[in-house]
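Fold these two proteins, one after the other.
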Amino acid sequence: MANEFRHNTVGTDLTQAEFEAVGLHIFNNQAAGDMPVATSATQISRLPVGTLGQGLKSNGVMPFWSSDLSLVSVQTFPAGSGTYTKNTNATKILVEGVAGGGGGGGANGNNAGMGAGGGGGGSYFRRFITSPNTSYSYVVGAGGGRGLYVSGTSGNNGANTTFDAAGTQNLLAPGGALGSGTGSLVSNSNPKICASGAGGVTATGNGSVAGDVFIAGNPGDIGVSASRTSSHGGAGGSSFFGGAGGGGNANAANANGEGNAGGNYGGGGGGGAGSANAAGTFRGGNGGNGGGGILIVWEFA
């Protein structure tokens, strides 16, 4: 029968050389690269070699060659730096990264209604690498710190996320820009406007690879003060994963409006807001911290 493992035909008598020969046992139709497979409890048969790029898989009963990818594992890395090491069973990787979001500005509410700007969202990259290295260096950007209401300071920029910063497969996602505090007003007339943070500019990567995705972060919203007793901090900009932090609201009943932190990964923090309360006391609101970035590596065999 075809593909069975059998004795080779050497005649009616075996010499010592024939008995010890490497060709004494072969498969029918044997070719280089073929593998032995137990097709039953008593039979060993030939599994022909697969085609270029195929991997050996199993349906739970028998092994077979397939061109489909199987997910081996997923590695995730929060804000920080280090080295990614590929799973030994992985032959291809899909890399996603988003940068840190910008922090929202603080509103001091000093004798006026004040609304600070929201921070921008971090940008995003995605690349499928068919012949990955064993390891890559990485940096995952932290979210920008918030601005404080005490002096109406601006937030801080979100930090960049990089993958293999020194190599040919370099990927870079810029962080979201800071939201301005109330010390940096665009207009001194009513309604007063406080500048927002720009989103992280479009991510980049060395070399063009089919399927590359590079997305800019969304900008934050401006902060607006309609009057001394009514103001609104700008919302943060969203990243690829969303997560825009809401801006603070301040009015006579709520004189200090805190901006919300950027949610998810890479979302910009919301701007704070301040105004006078019913008793005429002025307060301000802190901005929200920007959301930290993340690196996700999907490993396939």
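Now the second one:
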Amino acid sequence: MFSRLVLSIALSAALAAQSPDAAQGLQTLEVVPLPHDGEVLVSFKLNETLTDDIRKAIQSGLTIKFVYKVDLRRSSATWFDRTLQTAQVAATLRYDTLTREYHVARAIDGRTEKADVITREDVAWTWLTRDFSRLSLFRGLALEPNAEYYLRVRANASPRGASFIWPWAGDDAVGLAKFTFIR
């Protein structure tokens, strides 16, 4: 299973480097854009299961952090694609071994947006990987009507230590989604 996951992520990253259309079918990171009232709302989820190694790291009290880098880009037929704006969403989880509670927090571009205490492991894992719905990351950006854009979301997990190995390295978990901005 691990080798199949690594192959899938490597293939997805290779296709993502080629074009936004090519990577759509192999993504472990699903991205859904919603252009609405002059802005782009972003939803995404990382389709990753909680492995025993990651569970052990969490249960040890280690703070786990997933950083998602979200780029709003415009394709170019003649030159490199342009990045119009970038946002960073960070989700952290720390298990308190005394109270047996999960302390979770979410920050957007360095500002804490949400923090909570959760008692269930599955809900805490969802907080890190799947609970990203309709985020308003790109406000006040003048987009050209009827033009095609795409979102690229790259995932990065930390810590990276010798005691356990994340199932992907660096920004290998990449998701892309095209959309047409209609005003």
